[in-house]
């Protein structure tokens, strides 16, 4: 059996520097099928608790968008080129049609097929398997809880639903088929589906966001990682503490649940290199007495 | 080094039947300190993404409560004794003072001290260590992001903040000290702190909820597990699918984010016995082509 390749799903999907390896499977990785799925998998894909959390985000997006289309906003929720999160300027809406922009993986769909395949084999992440998944996964991914209803509600009030994913442009047909088979309707590459390889930005979604905002008044953005909102969150010089500080700065805080919407995903993400000292500061160290 | 005892944190804190064992540490449990914390730990305790999600729930609670105190609600959000979630009746408010009821662990505080101690040693959960933690953990737990601000906002509008925890009544002094040291102010056992052993209900919080609702008009309830809202969610006859169906039924859906508030916790929970087939239905099985 193939051992885990030292790349994380976070690397591919978020474009973050990463050499961590326990994104999908439990660590330490053991050959053979673990008796129990890792807790992150159990929680996200199996629990009523996560189902409620995901549904709540979808309900909030639909409520917010339905409210916003009644007043024509002046600006998109997409940062203007060069604007920083802590001193934000946004793309103007003018008279452009409305859109909402979503990451795809673990934002519109749960990648159950590839996740099970890798996790049962103790594979943290394998880009070759993932490439095959992008091409052939249609039918084995699922719309997340409440997502089909949310997408339908947005379209019903005239909002175009756009996906901006780090799946590869070369696999566009497979990703279109996957979203359609999940019950989320038609996404068309270059029109409502933007992918890595569409421009020279690599895994940064900033350029694709700018392209979308040039055509649409974007009233909502959603993702499971901060790179789904601004590439500034993925800058390599940003320490974990500084990243949290930036994400909870007044300017960013004003956007969460008010134009920017974050789905829970404890299974993989750009945080997958965090170590013991990042999670447990020394003043929380404790021993039984 | 002591090996993991086959009990999960979910069992103690949620009172669910459970023999799963990978609640805190990664599975398979290995002796010695894993190189990397499990993804669930990295996400919850280290990521900006989880920080945003937790803060969003706290902001929502404060906004909701501030709005509710302006109109005196007719009913508490606590189910009347014997009432079922799918046909709910609620405790009347009459002229009782306002309160909000919170679970403690991973709802008001993150248990960093005990979690680090067990996870670094590959211990899934050890009730003796946890008992010592309840007694002596003050200072090594942290208020969750935005929780001190939320608690202060509630108290500022005259709402009593009550904790209803499955920590033990015998360890009340330690838990009072832990909440105080985390910056959450004073909780007093029997008045604003309700614990396992306060009544004959064991780990069911229903009896304690009824006791609280007899004294207070409870306008908000929050937790990280469904047992923090009704023991009906913990009935052993409830399959995972039926539990999700109950939690997303129209009556329950009307309460989420409208009186009942759920915090993300992928580290431990009553879902920790879910197996591969629970997460990945056969029609999502897939293999690389």
From TrEMBL, chains A, B:
The keyword Protein transport does not apply. InterPro entries: Acid_phosphat_B-like (IPR005519), HAD-like_sf (IPR036412), HAD_sf (IPR023214). Keywords: Lipoprotein, Signal. SUPFAM superfamilies: HAD-like. Residues 1-19 form the signal peptide. PROSITE patterns: PROKAR_LIPOPROTEIN (PS51257). This is 5'-nucleotidase, lipoprotein e(P4) family. It comes from Sphingopyxis flava.
């Amino acid at each position: 059996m193939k051992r885990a390749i030292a790349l994380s799903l976070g690397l591919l999907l978020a474009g973050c520097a990463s050499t961590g390896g326990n994104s999908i499977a439990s660590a330490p990785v053991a050959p053979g099928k673990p008796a129990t799925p890792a807790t992150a998998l159990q929680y996200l894909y199996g629990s009523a608790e996560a189902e409620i959390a995901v549904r709540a985000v979808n309900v909030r997006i639909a409520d917010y968008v339905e409210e916003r289309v009644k007043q024509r906003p002046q600006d998109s929720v997409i940062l203007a080129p060069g604007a920083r999160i802590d001193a934000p300027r946004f793309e103007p809406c003018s008279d452009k049609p409305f859109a909402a922009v979503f990451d795809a993986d673990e934002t519109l769909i749960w990648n159950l097929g590839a996740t099970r395949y890798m996790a049962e084999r103790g594979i943290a992440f394998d880009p070759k398997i993932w490439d095959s998944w992008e091409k052939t996964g249609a039918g084995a991914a699922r719309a997340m809880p409440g997502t089909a209803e949310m997408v339908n509600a947005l379209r019903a009030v005239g909002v175009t639903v756009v996906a901006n994913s780090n799946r590869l442009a070369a696999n566009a047909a497979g990703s279109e088929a996957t979203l359609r088979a999940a019950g989320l309707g038609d996404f068309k590459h270059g029109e409502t589906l933007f992918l890595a390889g569409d421009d020279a930005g690599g895994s940064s979604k900033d350029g694709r966001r700018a392209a979308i905002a040039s055509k649409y008044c974007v009233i909502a953005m959603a993702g499971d990682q901060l790179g789904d909102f601004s590439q500034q969150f993925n800058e390599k010089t940003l320490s974990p503490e500084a990243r949290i500080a930036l994400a909870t700065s007044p300017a960013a805080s004003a956007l969460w649940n008010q134009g920017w919407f974050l789905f829970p995903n404890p299974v993989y993400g750009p945080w997958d290199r965090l170590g013991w000292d990042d999670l447990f500061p020394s003043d929380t160290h404790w021993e039984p007495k």
